[in-house]
Amino acid sequence: MLKVAVTGNVASGKSLVQKYMEKFDIPTADADEICRNLLANDEAVIEKVKQAFSGFDIMENGVISRKKLSNLIFSNSEQKKILEEIIHPKVREEIEGYIEDYKGKRFVVVFIPLLFESGMDSMFDKIILISAEQDIRLERLMNRNALSRKAAMRIISSQRREEEKVPDCDFVIYNNNSPNELYEQVDAVLKKLMNTH
User: Is residue 197 part of a domain?
Assistant: First the structure.
């Protein structure tokens, strides 16, 4: 089985690619979704996060507020690192379990925004980068999350630059234009993956 990771910076179009791949019955997993589930349902993770951030306002109606937590970590790199140290090992565990569940398939695709930052790149045979120009991502992020330019830029700046990731990827898909142009590139990459395996 070929293990494929898809990465890309915020608002590059990973969700669009995931939805498109799912149309072909390709097993896909999303690290962001795994994180959300852990913060909402995993008692051990919830407890660790509460303890680690007890001095900060991250709770709302008795549960961890993802919005408050995001605001905190994107404005404080030290706190971001603390959260990642709690979450990343659990995310890795979940992904390993997911891959195991689909080992009979031809390939499995996992979407991981912080693939290199988390050190999970070594788990995969092939890596695809979804790339989009920063100005385009900035506009998308502001519109999608109803953020000010400053808040959106803070999130964008917190991530490793796209150009630094390109040499470590097997394929780069550019999402600067229409969805159809994006899908054509995805088709071409899927065809190559099918041929290599």
Answer: no
Residue 94 CA to residue 29 CA, distance in Å, equals 10
Average pLDDT, consecutive stretches of 10 residues, N- to C-terminus, the chain (197 residues): 96 97 95 96 97 96 94 91 96 97 94 95 98 97 95 92 96 97 98 86
Q: Looking at the domain assignment, is residue 42 inside a domain?
A: yes
pTM for this predicted structure: 0.94
Query: Do strands 2-7 and 63-64 pair parallel, antiparallel, or not at all (unpaired)?
Result: unpaired
Q: Is the four-CA dihedral 131, 136, 138, 140 of positive or negative sign?
A: negative
What is the per-residue DSSP string for 90-130?
A: HHHHHHHHHHHHTTTSSEEEEE-TTTTTTTGGGG-SEEEEE
88 lies in some domain: yes
The per-residue pLDDT for range 92-110, each reduced to its tens digit, is 999 999 999 999 999 999 9
Neighbour order of strands in the sheet with 107-111:
28-30, 107-111, 2-7, 126-131, 171-174
- Helix (H) or strand (E) run with residue 29 in it: strand 28-30
The angle formed by the CA atoms of residues 73, 74 and 80, to the nearest 5 degrees, is 35
Its domain, for residue 23, covers 2-192
CATH number at residue 188: 3.40.50.300
